Amino acid sequence: QTSIYPDVTLITPTAQMSPSMHGGRAKCLQRLIRLDMPVPTTLALSFAAVQRCAKGQLPPVESLLEPFGEMPLLSVRPSSQDPDWGGPGAILNIGMNAVSHRHLTKRVGEAAATALYLRFVQSYAVHVARLDPEVFDFPNLTGIHALHAALDTFEAEAEEPFPQDVGVQLSEVLRSMARAWDGTSARLLREAKGAPVDAGLGLVVQAMALGVGDGESGSGVIQYVNATTGQPQVVGRYLSQSQGRDALNDKAGAIYLTSDQRGPALEDICPDVFAQLLAYGWTARSRLREEMQIEFTLEDGVLHILDAVRVQRSSRAQVQIAVDLASDGIIPREEAVMRVPSNALSEMLHRQVDPAAVRDVIVRGIAASPGAATGRIVLTAAEAQASAARGEACVLVRRETTPEDIRGMHAAQAVLTMRGGITSHAAVIGRGLGVPCVVGASDLTIDRKRGQIVAPGGRRFAVGETITIDGTTGTVLAGSPQMLEATLDASFQTLLSWADDFRDIGVRANADTPADAQTASNFAAEGIGLCRTEHMFFEGDRLGVMREMIFAETADDRRAVLDRLLPMQRNDFAELFAIMQGRPVCIRLFDMPLHEFLPYDKAGQRDLAEQLAMPLTAVTDRVQALSEYNPMLGMRGVRQGIAIPEIYEMQARAIFEAVADVAARGLVVQPEIMIPLISAMREVELIKVRVDSVARAVQSEMGVTFAFKLGVMVETPRAALRAQDIVKHASFLSFGTNDLTQMTYGLSRDDAGRFMSTYVQQGVYEEDPFHTLDLDGVGELLAIGAARGRAGRPDVVVSICGEHGGTRAAIGFCRAQGFNYVSCSPFRVPLARLSAAQLAL
Ligand code: PEP
Ligand code: MG
């Protein structure tokens, strides 16, 4: 008979129990009992029973005490459904009173008996009777004197004697633990850990194994892996004459478990017990299919197993353990893939601020590019480069970054901006480079005169002072807190290779530079889904050439100037092709308003006039002429490609010549050319005619043949709506959800940061749509575009390459719509591979 009262169960191998009725701890204890481990007699109170206890309706105490025999000593522990949700602290030694004190004195000696009684009175007073803990501290009293003082104090404070009846003691403990679970702070705490509002609490009542007395008695904790690395290792502590988890708290008295040079170990004093613990560990691992930490007690040399919990672990250990369990055939590979949350991978890919470190937060912003880095404050890209040249780590702080800052961003360890959101220039480049980045820290100002940044509360940090950017949490910290290094070990690679076997959507990377491409390749991206070419025009002295081109009078003059860029672009592309060998590389033609190449301040314009040997007015006139009210909706992308065709012609030639060069070296190349900002079919047609003719020219000039694909970015609503038509001239459609979100909402991706947090706080938007793909609105355009595209050309390849591409929600959506692949920042590729597999399983 296991059910001793409705909802109260004596835990036996066959009792009807489940984590959702009795909690994880109770269910785990049953598993240990089934594995024949020496678990003391234990009762489980279900969630329903505990709920009634909170209302004062306790099960009859005689039936609770019956399984424990004469004069029991008991512990009560919480058992929530998910052990991570916590619960009230355990209470030990219930049943201690004057009579059991006398009895125990005979059995284990007066000192030990008194210590147990005192401990119980103290924890009962504080946790059950809710008396002030301070008055139960007796620093000058020991032994029986302290016990008497505790009993007297209890009587004085509670206005009744300390309860002597074990039934009363137990009932009160159950009632107070049940009610603690309903308290506001406990509820908030567990909800923060993901518990549902109605999460239940079970309780387990267990016969105490004493851990004090004659023979070898004591308690300890053992686990079989290292919590940081996940590698096999016996870790734990044992403390003679102790109870519960004392061994972990008393660093001085506790001893190690395995024998080595550090002093006496449990293995030396009790080799049989140690061997037994190793055997139990092995059984628990293989049968519970998890790495467990076991709490044990020795009573006169006899081993008791009191409890087992899942080993707390770092992200790195989480991956290692999952891979090891699957490699040992304990869990299937599918389950290993499912067990690792993608944020664990993200932590492994970047240095992190040590969770144990002290954090002095200066200001908060948007977490734009994960990882943490420390450096001295610099306020300009030039200072960042100078700093790098001196070998000094720096953090580039800007109001916002522009393409001109790119080299500074390369040189900096981290980037902080005051403006911009998740798709701002700083954020996109930061993620691409793997540089930690916090954007939109709008509470921060720059005091240029004094060379300081000013944080909320008036805290000032001067150029050269050290700060830390935590791009994972979006915080800026003073000084240099302790860091945890990134670790890409073999288990990480193994897990991802398993993930690849299960996923059914491709993963490519957005990569602009050879370094990006190398990262993408290291992370096994299946190709480049978006190579933005704009930054290439800022490298070395190319900016000067672009400016000359802008001032050229005729198309021929423009062509002549652009011819100087051609070999450089050819090199850029050849490098990408070589790195991505055989995998497709999708190059997006130039997409940037030309005025961004011109200096906006007078000094810069004067400088440029000097360089070009032109009157200043010619420069200012040009700047004026190119300036637009709404550049994001102006002369950019394909519009420029049609109005000033020489740039695209040069790029197409550079791509094809690079294809020919690399193919001549015996490498396989799969080039793809992508046209940005399409809104009409005729745009594609016009560009295609030109690109095809450049291809023919290069083939005949170089005496080679090659294949390439031409496709379009779908980043205007009209392109999605007209996809059936547009796809006539395009073999692939790639959704640029950054611009598509901007244009669907009519929301500037560069300015929305100013009110986005207000909007999200007030529930106008559930999330920042530049961060989390808006499935309802933008998603509908994706679905329409994909369907109409396929209607026009059944074999069209469909993908997403906006910043959303690496997020789980977007991957899920794209899978459901039958997309061929997603493309995301190189550092997100591993997460995307894992998420895609988890979604498919
Ligand atoms: C997009 O608009 O989603 C895109 C990928 O292009 P960009 O971010 O360069 O505008
Ligand atoms: Mg775009």
Automatic annotation (TrEMBL):
GO molecular function, one term: metal ion binding
A Pfam family annotated for this UniProt entry: PEP-utilizers
Protein name, UniProt field: Pyruvate, phosphate dikinase
Gene3D superfamilies per the UniProt record, alphabetical: 1.20.80.30, ATP-grasp fold, A domain, ATP-grasp fold, B domain, Phosphoenolpyruvate-binding domains, Phosphohistidine domain, Pyruvate Phosphate Dikinase, domain 2
Binding site residues for Mg(2+): 715, 739
Coiled-coil segments on the chain, per record: none
Top-level taxon of the source organism: Bacteria
EC number of the protein: 2.7.9.1
Keyword Cell inner membrane carried by entry: no
Keywords: Kinase, Magnesium, Metal-binding, Pyruvate, Transferase
Enzyme class: transferase
Cofactor(s) this protein requires: Mg(2+)
PANTHER family given in the database record: PHOSPHOENOLPYRUVATE DIKINASE-RELATED, PYRUVATE, PHOSPHATE DIKINASE 1, CHLOROPLASTIC
Function: Catalyzes the reversible phosphorylation of pyruvate and phosphate.
Protein family membership: Belongs to the PEP-utilizing enzyme family.
Binding site for substrate: 532, 588, 715, 736-739
Boundaries of every PEP-utilising enzyme mobile domain copy: 393-474
InterPro entries per the UniProt record, alphabetical: ATP_grasp_subdomain_1, PEP-util_enz_mobile_dom, PEP_util_C, PEP_util_CS, Phosphohistidine_dom_sf, Pyruvate_phosphate_dikinase, Pyrv/PenolPyrv_kinase-like_dom, Pyrv_kinase-like_dom_sf
Active site positions, chain numbering: 425, 801
Every PEP-utilising enzyme C-terminal domain range: 490-839
